[in-house]
Each structure stands twice: as C-alpha cells, then as structure tokens.
Amino acid sequence: MTARDVVNLDTLLRGKEHDHGGLGTILAHRLFSRAEGSPGAEFVDIAVLPPGTSIGRHRHARDRETYVVISGSGLMYRDGTEFRVGTGDVVVNRPYGEHGLVNDSAADLWLLVFEEELRDHPEA
C-alpha cells in the first residue's frame, strides 16, 4: 500500500462560498460523478457546514437529492416546513421541491449528499 491509497478529507475539502445563495463558506468535495449515459447516482458529495453557514434554499428539476447527516445538527427546510436534523438522519428532497439546510449549532455539521435523476418516475 502506498500513500496514494489513502487520502484524508482535510486535503480534499475546498471552500464553497454562498452555496445556493446560503450563508458563509461551507467546505465540500465531490467524491463521485457519474459518467454521461451511465446508470446510478449523478454525484456523491461530502460537505461540512461550519456553525452559522448554510446551503441556501434551492430546487432541482427531476432530480432527487438525498442528505445524510454524518455528524452534527441543524435546521432543515423542505417544501414549506422547517424541522431539526441530527446525526444519522436521512432527508430525501423530492424532485422539483425546495430545500435548504442551516447549521445553527456550535459544532460542524457533516453531510453526505447524493443525487439521482428520476427518468422513469418524475413524480417520485
């Protein structure tokens, strides 16, 4: 095994200012991006929202975007409703729905985000 076999996220995460019009600068890295025409998820991202930052409210078209809270907590907005999320929570953001997330806590919020286009079931 070589040093290239293991990469620490600290070396990969990059600042992303005002993500979807959100507050402050989050850290993010795209772990995976689907090749054109291939099946499966469009992308898989890891994101870190420091205290006081957010992913702004936004919409996707026929894409279903899922948030998995790896650690931390925050205030989630989805389709007109706000609710608390924390470590272990999974939030499925429906196609054409509006969603966003604010880290209103004192600790970093770590998030796994993946998106898939729903070609056969646009209403799912």
How would you describe the overall organization of this protein?
It is a single chain. This protein is mainly β and 124 residues long. It has one domain: Jelly Rolls (Sandwich), CATH 2.60.120. 3% of the residues lie in helices and 52% in strands. It contains 1 helix and 10 strands; from the N terminus they run αββββββββββ. Strands 1-2-3-10-5-8 form a 6-stranded antiparallel β-sheet. It has a 4-stranded antiparallel β-sheet with strand order 4-9-6-7, with no helix packed on it. The longest helix is centred in the N-terminal third of the chain and has 4 residues. The termini are far apart.
Helix and strand arrangement:
Elements lengths: L8 H4 L1 E4 L7 E9 L9 E7 L4 E6 L3 E9 L1 E6 L2 E6 L3 E4 L4 E5 L6 E9 L7
Keywords:
six-stranded antiparallel beta sheet, Jelly Rolls, about 5% helix, four-stranded antiparallel beta sheet, about 120 residues, mainly beta, single chain
Give the structure's gist in a few sentences.
This protein has 124 residues and is mainly beta. The chain is built from one helix and ten strands; from the N terminus they run αββββββββββ.
Mean pLDDT: 89
Query: Can you count the helices?
Result: 1
Enumerate the strands of the largest sheet in spatial order, edge to edge or round the barrel.
1-2-3-10-5-8
CATH superfamily: Jelly Rolls
Q: Quick one: overall form?
A: globular
Q: How far do the termini sit from each other?
A: 43 Å
Strand content: over 45%
Relative helix content: under 10%
**How many DSSP-defined strands?**
10
The class by helix and strand makeup works out as: mainly beta
Q: What is the level-2 CATH architecture name?
A: Sandwich
Q: Over all CA atoms, what is the radius of gyration?
A: 15 Å
Task: Flag low-confidence runs.
Answer: none
Number of domains: 1
Major sheet: 6 strands, antiparallel
Q: What's the helix-strand series?
A: HEEEEEEEEEE
CATH topology: Jelly Rolls
